[in-house]
Amino acid sequence: MAADAEMSPMAEIHAFNHRAMATHFEVRIAGDEKSYAAQAAQASIDLVDRLESRLSRFRPTSEIAQLALLGPGEKLRISEPAFACLQIAKQMEQITLSAFCPTPSALQTQPALPQWELLPAEQSIICVSGRLDFDLGAIGKGFALDRMAELIRDWDCPSFLLVAGGSSILAGDPPTGTPGWSCGLGDDNSSHRILLSNASLSGSGLAVKGAHILDPRTGQPAPRQSRAWILADTAAESDALSTACMVLSEPELIELLDQNHSWLAFLDTEEGPRAIGKRQPPVSG
Q: Which of 8, 78, 86, 270 is the most buried (most CB within 10 A)?
């Protein structure tokens, strides 16, 4: 996905880049003095690095990696960000009936998906059964964008666009004098564009994830779509749901979207992206 502002003569946009979570993050802040915008962007970038140190399964000392060491009945107190991310992951797993799953490859090494519960009063997680091999790649970047947005708003920079690897975009207020941030559904030169404001857009596709996307419910390859995008209020939701779209049949997807009218899906067709869901489609841009 590509994103740009619908520019006006008054809109000045400052862009900052950072590598984290095995992808490219970009922070764009509009309308503020450049040095102040740089400070706000750096604060959000530092936050991403802290989140990666807690949520990455590739770091042996991360909290997520440590959870794989828990045996059935054992529990571990975890940090607020790790708990919050797992809480959203649990909700999305339940809503999608495991089409999104934070342990997506479990059936490759275990006879069943591992079971786990969160204990809010203790800010802990308990292993019920199986090995907790978490992989938050399908929600972690979105979660990071949501936390970055909270921090940037705390810096009183309401007009921003956050990008994670081109697969997830989170927009704040549009730049002054513009109707929104122009985001493409597809490649950088895509003619299918929408104007995004205070919403998130995430995409999944075979070109990015490969031709052997696993359905976590069966452990077998089961891609239903070549590409799909989800529009939602939060990046964690759009990130997780775009992954679920790749394994859900269209009737399953329609039933899922009927549960929440703040979600909208776009499925790739020969005629271009086709919208599904109750949410009002954004203005084309």
A: 86
Three-point CA angle 210, 233, 213, nearest 5°: 15
Q: Which of 52, 26, 21 is nearest to 41 (CA)?
A: 26
Q: What backbone phi and psi angles, to 5 degrees, belong to 256?
A: -65, -45
CA angle at residue 252 from 104 to 248, to 5 degrees?
35
Residue ranges of alpha helices (H) inside the chain are 34-55, 63-67, 80-95, 140-154, 206-209, 235-245, 250-257
pLDDT tens per residue across span 218-240: 888 766 778 899 999 999 999 99
SS (H, E, C) 47-85: HHHHHHHHHCCCCCCCHHHHHCCCCCCCEEECCHHHHHH
* Alpha carbon distances (Å) from 192 to 85, 87, 206: 31, 34, 19
Domain locations in the chain?
A: 63-129
Residue 44 has pLDDT above 70, yes or no: yes
With helix as H, strand as E and coil as C, how does 83-120 read? HHHHHHHHHHHHHCCCCCCCCCCHHHCCCCCCEEEEEC
Contact 169, 162 (CB under 8 A): yes
Q: Going by DSSP bridges, is the β-strand pair 181-184/3-5 parallel, antiparallel, or unpaired?
A: antiparallel
Do 230 and 262 meet the contact criterion of CB atoms below 8 Å apart?
no
The answer to whether residues 20 and 49 touch, using CB atoms and an 8 Å cutoff, is yes
**pLDDT tens digits, one per residue of 233-283:** 999 999 999 999 998 999 999 999 998 999 999 999 888 899 999 999 998
Contact 21, 144 (CB under 8 A): yes
Residue of 134, 96, 54, 53 whose CA lies nearest to 228: 96
